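Our preliminary data section would be incomplete without showing what the modeling component actually yields. Below, a chain of 183 amino acids is followed by its predicted structure, encoded as tokens that our downstream tools consume directly.
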Amino acid sequence: MNNLKVTRKNIYLIAGFALMFFIFTGSKVFAVEKIGFFNLRAVMQNSNNGKKAGEEFKKLYDKKTEAIKAAESELKKMKDSLDKQSALLTQTANKEKETAYQKKLRDYQILVDDTNKELKARDEEIASKIIPEIAKVVQAIAEKEKYTLVIDTATMPVAYHAKENDFTKKVTDEYNKISTSKK
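Predicted structure:
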């Protein structure tokens, strides 16, 4: 029994020393982490460089869409013509028109596929220019304001975050200042 009392006493003594150690070694052990949030997509859409890139991308998209619509219209006319004339044409003439239509359809599909690839490549090119610049701004703000973690709410869904820790507007404003001073 006496041995048991000594053991408990030692445990309490060790726990007390551990508690005192944590208290006196500094508040870093118990420091509250400061977490910040921003929305990369919003910064890209609302910043001057992002708006400019968006307008250029829209022009390219509209131009490519126009070409696709023209090819689509021509394809539809060919199909309608083929459907109307198929009963009147000879089997050979019908087969020739069907072959021409199939070739035009393949050309159309290639055009759509190439356009999608080109638009995707252009989008990635824009992002590869803008995102690193925005990341530098986020890092500078985070270091200045002593954030220990910053989460992009556009790419990582967050169920809830305190709006006072969201500095999207600050990132956008700072990025605009930096991008205008480079010109």
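Helices lie at 2-24, 40-46, 48-85, 91-144, 168-182. Residues 91-144 form the longest helix (54 residues). Preliminary results of this kind motivate Aim 1 of the renewal.
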